[in-house]
UniProtKB/TrEMBL annotation:
This is MFS transporter. Coiled coil: none annotated. It comes from the Bacteria. It comes from Virgisporangium aurantiacum. PANTHER family: INTEGRAL MEMBRANE EFFLUX PROTEIN-RELATED (PTHR23513), MAJOR FACILITATOR SUPERFAMILY ASSOCIATED DOMAIN-CONTAINING PROTEIN (PTHR23513:SF6).
């Protein structure tokens, strides 16, 4: 069942979904640094352990989520989204409780980080398919743009607010606030009233009989997202573009940090400005995306915005020391994120249109699992949160 522009119910449900996303994204942005900080302050974790907290949890989450994608594909998405939110609530809540009673361990933190990442991926996989069913095609670009804008507002305002909360309340309370945001998100999704259509029948291919046949069938089903991307004439190059661009951003990030702090002599305050201010570009770009789509064909906007993202990286090595260098780096990153802010929601809209219903969850999972290690510029709410 598809919704039409004339149906009033989907608009009300979309507003609840948007509110749920805004609350959970705000909580995530505010609590972004709380787990590593708690590891350092409460457990005296080493730099290697803090790095492991992100790296190992991400790999473990990916290994756990990929086999789950076909199961999510075959089930209604709202219960899955609510369950993922409640799982994140329980995981983060357990950290606060364990810290208060003195039972917190590094293994506990590592497990919670993996569970949180896995639940976020499952939520994203379900929410993309759900959004496609909820929102009419003519409204999808506007919808993805508003979610993208919310993401960049949280990215812009969340870390400073999180730093304030960490200073005033401590890491344990900040993590508890993040946990409660997922309860609010689940409550918002629970308010949706339009009937959710049954999931599309998954296309798995012939699996044969016997153990080997069932194993081949399971592998085909699990790898369905990657196979769909590889077989699509447009998604395939977009996928390659995401990996190349995201890989370049990921490789440049530590070098840029060294450049700013060592070569250019930025103060901690200047460094903070260089990290935080450019998110305003993402806000501007995401707000402009629907207008760009009204003026130009989708393909041309994706090509122009996607190519323009890479141009601004070339300015960063040219930055001089001092305030002038700060201005150059902030301007370059702001323009980069403005291009990314315009590209991401329009790409999410295209991927939604180009992917068959029976593959939506697996394609989203394949994309998120593969591109998750890449920078925030190479991904978007389409990969990490609704839609």
């Amino acid at each position: 069942m598809r919704v039409s522009e004339a149906d009033a119910g989907w608009r009300r449900d979309w507003r609840w979904l948007w509110a749920a996303y805004a609350v959970s994204e705000a909580g995530t942005a505010v609590g972004a640094g709380a787990l590593p900080l708690l590891a350092v302050l409460a457990l005296n974790a080493s730099a290697l352990q803090v790095s492991m907290l992100a790296a190992i949890s991400g790999v473990a989450a990916a290994i756990a989520v990929v086999p789950l994608a076909p199961w999510v594909e075959r089930h209604r998405k709202r219960p899955v989204m609510i369950a993922a939110d409640l799982l994140r609530l329980a995981a983060l809540g357990s950290v606060s409780v364990a810290a208060v009673v003195g039972l917190l361990t590094f293994v506990h933190l590592l497990t919670v980080a993996a569970v949180q990442t896995a639940a976020a991926m499952v939520f994203a996989a379900a929410s993309g398919a759900h959004m496609k069913q909820l929102v009419p095609p003519t409204w999808r670009a506007r919808s993805t743009s508003r979610f993208e804008t919310t993401f960049w507002i949280a990215t812009f305002a969340g870390p400073p607010l999180g730093g304030l909360l960490l200073t005033l309340l401590g890491a344990t309370a900040t993590i508890a606030i993040d946990a409660v945001s997922f309860l609010a998100s689940a409550a918002g999704i629970r308010r949706l009233r339009t009937s959710e259509p049954p999931p599309a029948a998954a296309v798995n291919g012939e699996s044969g009989t016997g153990v080997r046949g069932r194993l081949r069938g399971w592998l085909r089903e699990t790898s369905g997202g990657w196979r769909y991307i590889a077989g699509h004439v447009v998604l395939r190059p977009l996928f390659a573009n995401a990996l190349v661009f995201g890989g370049a951003i990921m490789a440049a990030a530590p070098l840029t940090t060294v450049l700013m702090l060592r070569e250019l002599g930025f103060t901690p305050l200047q460094y903070g400005f260089a990290l935080g201010l450019p998110a305003a570009g993402g806000i501007v770009g995401s707000l402009a995306a629907p207008r760009l789509l009204r003026q130009f064909p989708l393909g041309k906007v994706l090509l122009a915005a996607g190519a323009a993202r890479a141009v601004w990286l070339g300015l960063i090595p040219l930055a001089p020391p001092g305030t002038a260098g700060l201005i150059v780096i902030v301007a370059a990153d702001t323009m980069l994120l403005a291009c990314a802010g315009a590209f991401n929601p329009l790409f999410a809209t295209y991927r939604m249109q180009a992917t068959a219903d029976a593959y939506m969850t697996r394609v989203a999972t394949a994309w998120a699992v593969t591109s998750k290690p890449c920078s925030r510029c190479a991904s978007s709410p389409a990969d990490s949160s609704p839609p």
